[in-house]
User: Fold these one by one.
Assistant:
Number 1:
Amino acid sequence: PRVSLPQPMPMQRSLKTIVPILVIAVASAGLVGALHYQHARLRAQSSAYWTRRMEASADATHSSVEAWLDERQEDDRLMARRAARNPKLFDAHRVREAAGVELEEVVTELAAERGYRGIWVVRADGSTVEASKFADALPAAVREAAMLSASNGKSASIGPLPITDGQIFAVIEPVMASGAGHAMKPIGAVILGIDPYETLYPLVLREQSGIESARHRLVQHVGDQLVVLTPSKFPQAKAGELHMPWGSAPIVGKLAAEGKDSSGAMLGIGDVPIIAATRRVPEAGWGIIRSLSQQEAFAPVEHEFQLEKTFALSIFLIGIVAWYFLRRH
């Protein structure tokens, strides 16, 4: 006699259908979790790498700018000592004499050798004692700063400031002479006028290999504004044109201008996410920013993540198709 086999119960058929689906779902969830963990780990590694690069770049830029400024201040001190040899030149009522002609020749020679826009020797009242040949007209703000230096006997700097054909940065050194009781007193000041486009900005904006979206800047807190002194690529702006109210300035600009050395992921101008490092040049009141966009920094990580997602999706679909055919047969 024929023996009939027992038919699977409905519950058993349901389990045979549901269990593979659950296995695939759990495996998929585990794969997605692993991918996101790997993605986060790679982003953290990339962020740490670029932060170190920006820190090294900011330190190198800071050292270069400090050395550049020291050289200009040393030139200024040299000229101040030279002018102090003839204190009578600072008497506004004396007629010009051979010592004045000689001083003009000295400052003209130094200006030509160093590429300065001009060198001016002024009295405490701001009137000019001598100036290098072909020197620009002295801006009123620079003359006022020189008068203050000649009054308090302290070194100073101002700018960069806009002028007719560009910008000028001025380094100011008081001229000291012996007074009553041999005490030294200021009788005037020497001003070095520097074109920042020629030497300063190239130091701050020098490119780094492998970076396309560099956002390197020199900034300053002026009044109630944060001013970007250097020309800008992102966004496009000429030197000194990019400025914003201090209250709404990006954190990276505030940190740099306030003299707080910092680094890491933060927001830049226009709330663009960046990886940056900031350094301070206290003598001039400048802040240095070396940065790049996070979009560029994380581009290789995001590309790899997309490839891994595509590969994982392919494996998942192959598994679904294989399960379907095995179930049918």
Number 2:
Amino acid sequence: LKNMYGKAILPPTPELLPGDITTCGIITQPGTYTLTQDITLQDANELGSYDYKDNNACFRIIGDNIILDGNGHTLQGVSPLTYNGIAIQIGSVPLRSDGKRVHPIDYQEGITIRNFEHVANFSKGIIAYEASGLTIENNDFTTERVSSALPVGLSYSTHVTLKNNTITAYPGITALDINTDEVIVESILVENNTITGEVRISGGTGGIRTTNIRQNTIQASTGISIEENTQPLTVENNTITAAATGVFVRDASNVLIQSNKIQHPYASAQSGITILYNSTNNTLQENTIEYGPTTLESEEYSGIFIVGDDTIQPSYTTLTKNNIQLTAPLSAL
């Protein structure tokens, strides 16, 4: 068989069965799948084909009540998977036409991804489309310095727990992307992760609600950005080391930012917390914002920066017991 471009279609990607596994494959049946050895791909063609197209995902999960246990093993991709490959994909990309969804939500329910010692050399470590009741814990996801890189992505996914992971992207690139559009998603917990790269939250017209980003250690240019979201969301007890901005809020409402420690050791620092444009009913309380002597070289630095434009102004922002201070040099922080 050949595809529309005349290229031979690779053999179908194998479907895995519950139990011990040693290779990449498609997972559809409920049960626990336990990896018993490291996987190091030598050629992208090893992934075979899916739906008569080249498969670019090592593990493709389409089903419910599934546990994929890395069992302390590693998963290494290979070029060109570094640029367009996915280590673990849950669900399928939602079909859209003229910017609108063309099919209803079909959640993959009750999925757990755990205990991968190291996942690297893929453009995306894990991407979840339309997952519900998803747990991602005790993994290490790393992506390379390419513009499409994303260690962890949650799209239209709800009731998600992401905890005790190490998530590493190039510092100027997004490490964790949580997004939706016309569908409301809720109950997303991001807790106790070590993250290098931006945590980005975008609610679209639906919104992401009852979400808590807490007790994470984040190092990035911008630590956490929240945009176009009107649903309640909490950012608390995180330690953020930011080259530019610690927490960035734009066109978002009902955000509680509390008890975070934001460190700005660099001259490139812009602000500890920024609230922009049509952002209303946000609360900033008991945050500590520290900046070292080199930050003073920046004339545009603000501990907390709230601003609109000629037509839109932020409103009803509550500030309580925030502590903005000059600290010792970076080596002493």
Number 3:
Amino acid sequence: LLEELLTRKPDDPSALVSLARMKAQQGDFARAQELLTRAGKTRIPRDLLALEWGAVYLVGGQADRARVVLQEVVDLNPRNVRAWALLAAAALELDDERGVEDCYQALNREAKLDATALAIRGQIELQRRKFDAARLDFERALVMSPNNIQLLEQLLRIDAIIGRPDLAEQRVRQLLTIDPASASGNYFMGSLQIRRGDLPLAENSFRKSISKSRMPMALNDLAWLLHARGQNGEAETLAREALAANPKLAAAHDTLGMILLRTNRAGEAEKAFRAGLAINSGDLTFHIHLAEALVQLKQREKARQIVTGLLARTKEMMPDDRDVLLRLRRELDQE
């Protein structure tokens, strides 16, 4: 329809901007920029055009250019909420903490925020682990933009972080109703199914997720599930793919370590467990798995030191981890 309108009215600024926005969302950035250049030759207000350029630069992965354009807008009009929101998105992309803070304070000064501004502020709060504030902003944005997939995904992440499977399941079902192929939706559904012990269903959900997007956490969780079912060949391939995509994913180092341990490669397993602990030294499961590897490697004194240190913390452990720890203690006491 917009193309048809521009055929009849080639200088219609509203149609040019709307079509540019659509083309940017579709990944056709050259066409989007051509349309905005044409819009610039019309009587469109300069600040509105600058906002559209900033948005296109952001979607096109040019956050540095977006920041320059959007900074000019807020310098001219410090009350321009949408400009502050987009500028915050650029600062987040560029890891510019000072810029993020300036935008955050500007957004907090405004009583009325649109869905975009609320979503960006929520993203900042999520990054800063202000989960209650982030949840409130995302939920308010969702009221203004019902069935918005990105907002539902953000709320799902918060539900997972704070351990609210009751809320997560409701949102997962809503998300999968809107987009049955959603990578995030199927990943979170698989996680919920694992909690319920529905491993075949969880495997199916994880496979749907990675068929849409090879998210490292989804690759890792599917690898762990397959390992638990004895399918270590495919599990190892997936765990290594997860680590290639995100070497700082501690859980994937642990998954790979367990696969190596169960396939008689204890030396390699030890290295994997230590790599995981270097990233997250507070995970008791990783320490227990390292002790298992050391026992297999006949380094019993090192294993005993780990086990002894963990015995005082059994109340903090999952039942399966506690059982493994007590088994290791029995084995080490049999010398």
